[in-house]
C-alpha cells in the first residue's frame, strides 16, 4: 500500500496528515508553527518521520508530499514569495528545502487553493471536475478547479477571488491597496464596513444599535441579529450576498463550475446568507452558465487544507500517471 504526506502550514499550527491514495485519512495531527525562519520545514519532516514509524510506513511507501502555505506561490517551482504569518520574507524554496528530507514528488500551493481542492475531492464539490470555492474570513480567498486542475495563471495570481472589484463606488480600501475589492464588502471586515457606512444614514433602529454606535459590533453579531429578523442586519446581509453573487456570476461564465462552494467563518451564518446569494445569483447570471450549477456551503472545516494538500499529489502525480 502507498501513502501521501500532507501539510497545511498556518501561522499558529501546522496541520499534518498521512493519507491513502483515495485521500482517506490514515492519521492527522498538529504541531506548533516554528516561526524561526525555515526551521518549520525541518520540524514538519521530523514529525512525519515519527508518525510514519508509528504506522510501520517507510519513505519508500510514500508517493509524494503536498504542502499548503499562506502566501503567494510559484507553483511550477515550489517557491513561496514571502509569508507574513510565518515570518518568511523573500523567496523561500519550499520544495528544494523539503527535498533534503524527502526525495519524492513535492507540490506546494497557496492555502486557499489547497482548501478549494480539499472541498472538491471530499467536501461540497462532490468530486466534480469543475468547482469554485469562495472563502469568507477576515479576508476573502478561494480557488478555482477547472477540468480537475487548479487555476494558477501565468504568475500565480489566478483565482484571487477576493480582489474582484465588485463595489464600483470604491468606498473602502483593501489591504492590497486598491478600492472596491470583494474583500472590502464580503469578508468579516467587509460586513462591518457596510454596517458603519449605512447605519448613520438610515432611519431604522437596529437591535444591535449599542454595539454599532460604540464600534464593538462583529460580523457574527450582525448575522445573529438577522436570524431573529432584525431589519437593518437583513439589509446588510442582502448587500453582502449581492456582492458575492456578482463575483460568482463572473466565475460562472469564466469556468462554468458545477458547484460554487462558500466557506470560511462568515459562511457559518448558514442558510440565511446562502439563500440571499442564490436569489441574487439567479437574477444576474447568464442562463446557460448557471444551468445545473449549485451554490453550497463548504463541509470540511479545518480539514480542507490537509485533504487538499494531499489532493495535490492525487491530482498531479497519481491521476497524471493513470491518465
Give the helices and strands, then pairings.
Layout: E1 3-9, E2 13-20, E3 25-32, H1 39-54, E4 62-69, E5 73-74, E6 79-83, E7 88-92, H2 94-98, E8 106-110, H3 111-122, E9 131-136, E10 140-146, E11 149-150, H4 183-186, H5 188-199, H6 209-213, H7 219-227, H8 231-255, E12 259-263, H9 271-284, H10 287-290, E13 294-297, H11 304-322
Helix pairs in contact: 3-11, 5-8, 7-8, 8-9
Protein name: Glucokinase
Keywords: ATP-binding, Kinase, Nucleotide-binding, Transferase
GO molecular function: glucokinase activity
Account of the 3D structure:
The protein has 323 residues and is α/β, with parallel strands linked by helices. It has 11 helices and 13 strands. The protein has helices at residues 39-54, 94-98, 111-122, 183-186, 188-199, 209-213, 219-227, 231-255, 271-284, 287-290, 304-322; strands at residues 3-9, 13-20, 25-32, 62-69, 73-74, 79-83, 88-92, 106-110, 131-136, 140-146, 149-150, 259-263, 294-297. Strands 3-2-1-4-8 form a 5-stranded mixed sheet, with helices on both faces. Strand 5 and strand 6 (79-83) form a beta hairpin.
Keywords for this entry:
323 residues, alpha/beta, 5-stranded mixed sheet, 11 helices, 39% helix, 22% strand, globular, transferase, kinase, ROK_glcA, ROK_cs, nucleotide-binding
Amino acid at each position: 500500500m502507498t501513502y501521501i504526506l500532507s501539510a497545511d502550514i498556518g501561522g499558529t499550527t501546522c496541520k499534518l496528515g498521512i493519507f491513502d491514495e483515495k485521500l482517506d485519512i490514515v492519521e492527522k495531527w498538529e504541531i506548533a508553527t516554528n516561526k524561526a525562519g525555515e526551521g518549520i520545514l525541518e520540524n514538519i519532516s521530523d514529525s512525519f518521520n515519527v508518525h510514519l514509524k508509528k504506522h510501520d510506513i517507510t519513505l519508500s511507501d510514500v508517493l509524494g508530499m503536498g504542502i499548503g502555505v499562506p502566501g503567494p506561490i510559484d507553483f511550477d517551482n515550489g517557491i513561496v514569495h514571502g509569508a507574513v504569518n510565518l515570518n518568511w520574507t523573500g523567496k523561500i524554496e519550499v520544495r528544494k528545502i523539503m527535498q533534503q528530507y524527502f526525495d519524492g514528488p513535492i507540490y506546494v500551493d497557496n492555502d486557499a487553493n489547497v482548501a478549494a481542492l480539499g472541498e472538491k475531492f471530499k467536501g461540497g464539490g462532490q468530486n466534480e471536475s469543475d468547482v469554485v470555492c469562495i472563502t469568507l474570513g477576515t479576508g476573502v480567498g478561494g480557488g478555482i478547479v477547472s477540468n480537475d486542475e487548479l487555476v494558477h495563471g501565468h504568475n500565480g495570481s489566478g483565482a484571487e477571488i477576493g480582489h474582484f472589484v465588485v463595489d464600483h463606488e470604491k468606498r473602502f480600501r483593501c489591504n492590497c491597496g486598491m478600492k472596491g475589492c470583494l474583500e472590502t464588502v464580503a469578508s468579516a471586515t467587509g460586513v462591518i464596513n457596510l454596517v458603519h457606512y449605512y447605519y448613520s444614514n438610515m432611519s431604522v433602529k437596529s437591535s444591535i444599535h449599542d454595539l454599532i454606535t460604540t464600534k464593538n459590533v462583529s460580523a457574527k453579531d450582525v448575522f445573529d441579529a438577522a436570524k431573529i429578523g432584525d431589519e437593518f442586519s437583513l439589509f446588510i446581509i442582502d448587500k453582502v450576498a449581492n456582492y458575492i453573487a456578482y463575483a460568482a456570476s463572473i466565475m460562472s461564465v469564466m469556468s462554468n463550475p458545477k458547484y460554487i462552494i462558500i466557506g470560511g467563518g462568515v459562511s457559518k451564518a448558514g442558510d440565511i446568507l446562502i439563500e440571499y446569494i442564490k436569489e441574487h445569483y439567479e437574477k444576474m447570471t447568464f442562463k446557460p452558465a448557471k444551468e445545473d450549477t449549485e451554490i453550497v456551503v463548504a463541509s470540511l472545516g479545518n480539514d480542507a487544507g490537509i485533504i487538499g494538500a494531499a489532493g495535490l499529489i492525487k491530482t498531479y502525480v497519481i491521476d497524471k500517471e493513470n491518465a
